[in-house]
Amino acid sequence: MSTAPTPAEAIAALLARGEARPALGLCLQALRRAPTDRPLLSLLVRAALAAGEPDGGLALLEQLVPATGQDPGVSEAYGSLLALAGRTARIKDFRTVAEAVDSLNGPACRVMAGVHAALGEGDAVALYRGLAGWLEAAAALPDRPDTVPPVALPPAEADVPPVAEPDLVCFVAHHVTPRIRKLAHGLRARGLRVHLVIDGLMPPSPTDDQGYDPREFDGLTHAPGPLALWRLLRARAPLAVHVFCHNYDNWDGAMTALLLGRPNTVIDPYDPFHPSIAPQRFDGPGEDKDRNRRILKLQRLVYDNAPALCLRFLYPHLTRSRLADRPRRRLYFPDMAWGRTPTARKLSADDGMLHVVHGGSFQPERTHGTPFSGLLWLAERAEDFGVHLHLYAVPDGRATAGGGLDLRDYQAVAARSAHMHLHDPLPYDQWLDALARYDLGIMAIHPPDTDIFVDIPRPREPRGLWGNKIGDYLDAGLYTVCSWRSLVMGWLVERYGVGQRATCEEVVTRAFWDDLKARLLGGDGVDLSRGVAALSVDRHAERLAAFYRTLT
């Protein structure tokens, strides 16, 4: 006794006989009853292509999306039908959403996988399916992703790279930071070539990215989106691919590189981004908090699955892989000094007074309503202490409506005191030159109770942090004063005699500043040469090169 064919078998038979339109009609009927059936979805695309009528399938799938909860198979079939129908504007919309990876939009990546499947571009299908897998896994995690078991993610495909280039390192970044420039400088001095890939929608711009010179790299390429980056990396076989991530960007670049499945992919996060360090960034409602929680989930997946990390901070309990079967290499590599020799004449040589400087991200007290978020405590007392404060403030956190910093309190002090100086932010290389005129660089000083930092995007627990400014201060011949809570920074500057830690009780006393003035301006001053030699990037670049070699 013969059995009736299944809908899929009946549709396949119609297609085999060249009866495309009846096959399409039967497929539409069957999908209304089983909207997530993968064989039926595949047959829908085939039937629509054969009949030259993708619009009916598109209309049905658009109706099915709410009921299916954006099923991966439905999303991919929808993308294929969009491609067959030539809906370029709609495809562009999905591509935009898919490449805004911090939105955790796995369905958009599934749609793009379907688009490229219809176009016969298998490499792109592998990428977007891989990204969708990452994003879907991240979306399923709770807001505190390290409280649940780790998720192991496979590479997108078995990648066979071309001929090896053992003297080449590929840097991948959204922005060119001083850290990237310094690492490139050190590696090139060791005989390695460094090719910089700027991934993202914005093309590389030396003007926008702190005035770097493209000649600091052996090659510079723009990869406008994950697919361009994917294809570029698949075509090269460097010693290492080193991906630089900031708190808010380039986790898409990290995922794209990791999907290649190569053991020499190194992820380099800029700062720790975790509720235990700065809970105010994650707790409560708001679009920013929602974004931060989404990125935290992506970051957790990257930390668990990355084969290698290069870290400028020390919080090993946050960055360790929780997957016991995944080999992991780790290198601690804080931002170093260039090793420059300053030649500028110090202002103190003319007036005999200690000149203190702070520059970079700044969080004024008026904006946040919190004491010790900025340096107003020093600005208001500088004249009493017999010192000058020079401030080069860059917006960070919540700025004013005009997009800048609310520095009215500092402006008021500067108007009545010749010891408070407000300067405009400078391009990085000019900043290094300007620094050399001063004597001491100061970091933010934490109060005993950091719970007052309730509304500041500053880490409450800075013990493992590292600041790029320490290297800048060394290059300019400046002594460093950092927070008593900054254990790693404090230990290193004190070990090499180039700085010290201080409490908020100490820094508001005249005796503290008199002691610094006596040591820095009296006699021969403080010899910083040991610290410059020990903490210059040229000295440590071989460690990084050797680290790369252990990965292949």
Describe this structure in words.
It is a single chain. The protein has 552 residues and is an alpha/beta fold. The protein has 3 domains: 7-140, Serine Threonine Protein Phosphatase 5, Tetratricopeptide repeat (Alpha Horseshoe); 165-336 and 542-549, Rossmann fold (3-Layer(aba) Sandwich), CATH 3.40.50.2000; 348-534, Glycogen Phosphorylase B (Rossmann fold). The chain is built from 24 helices and 13 strands. It has helices spanning 7-16, 20-33, 38-51, 54-68, 72-85, 88-99, 106-118, 122-139, 178-189, 226-234, 251-258, 287-305, 316-319, 348-351, 365-368, 376-379, 382-385, 408-416, 428-435, 468-475, 487-495, 510-521, 529-534, 537-549; strands at residues 165-173, 193-199, 219-223, 238-245, 265-269, 308-311, 329-332, 354-362, 387-395, 420-423, 440-442, 479-483, 499-502. The strands form 2 sheets. It has a 7-stranded parallel sheet, with helices on both faces. Helix 12 (287-305) links the parallel strand 5 (265-269) and strand 6 (308-311). Helix 3 packs antiparallel against helix 4 (54-68), helix 5 (72-85) crosses helix 7 and helix 8 (122-139) packs across helix 12 (287-305). It is elongated, with a radius of gyration of 28 Å. The chain starts with 6 loop residues before the first helix and ends with a helix.
